[in-house]
Amino acid sequence: MEFNEQELTDFKYTIEAALLASTEPLSVSDIKRMFNEDLNANLIKDMLRQIAEEWSSRSGEVVEVASGWRIQVRTNFQARLDKLEPQRPPKYSRAVLETLAIIAYKQPVTRGDIEDVRGVAVSPNILRTLEARGWIDQIGVRETPGRPALFGTTETFLNDLGLKALGELPPLDDLGELLEESPDMSEQMTLDVEDSGEVTIDPVPVHEAAGSQSIN
Predict the structure, then answer these.
(1) 71-108: per-residue pLDDT in tens?
(2) Is residue 29 located within the same domain as residue 64?
(3) The domain boundary residue, chosen from 31, 60, 80
């Protein structure tokens, strides 16, 4: 189907408005549902690239992440914006960050695999909290006695880091800094692990915890 210039401009501005209004990334399929006209995927992607180019000199940027496209504030403006709502830098327990890093870099893994790497029992609360946050999920079972659950990271985890695929994960030592810099990671995560039998470790800055564990 052929569209005239005015129609194409209207489509592009509608997509831009949707990106501004949406709290979640929009996939090409999401965008197609907005239109009665039959817009093909290539046309939509072309308009997304046009919007990204038009935003190239603005304070926001159009980026593609794992589950779609979104408009976000450029990181160099974030420090000043944080002053509008002062909050302490996010801190995560060493146990949480190590568990998340093991899953991210060695997935799919079982709870036993995580314990082998960390050398201590993994609190069920840690896994439940990571699942509730949407960063990990059960993606299957291992066909061994007991059929233990296999865990992997999710699209939400990649979205929050601003990544499209696992292959874009940074070196392990840089993961903590990426978590701290991401606006989507700004929530304070708290865990009650006192009944897990694991030694409780005081929360530490993310970048310190990420660098503390070597994953082979």
Answers:
(1) 999 989 988 888 887 666 556 688 888 899 999 999 99
(2) yes
(3) 80
Answer whether 127's CB lies under 8 Å from 95's CB.
no
CATH number at residue 139: 1.10.10.10
Q: Are 168 and 126 in contact (CB under 8 A)?
A: no
Distances from the Cα of 14 to the Cα of 40, 54, 112, 137, 196, angstroms: 15, 15, 49, 34, 51
Cis peptide before 203 (omega within 30 of 0): no
**What is the phi-psi region of residue 162: left when phi exceeds 0, alpha when psi lies from -120 to 50, beta otherwise?**
left
Q: What is the largest CA-CA distance in the chain?
A: 67
H or E segment and range at residue 204? strand 204-205
Q: What is the pTM of this model?
A: 0.64
**Within this chain, do residues 48 and 134 fall inside the same structural domain, yes or no?**
no
Of the residues 55, 80, 105, which one is the last residue of a structural domain?
80
Residue 215 counted as domain residue: no
Domain of 143, in residue numbers: 91-210
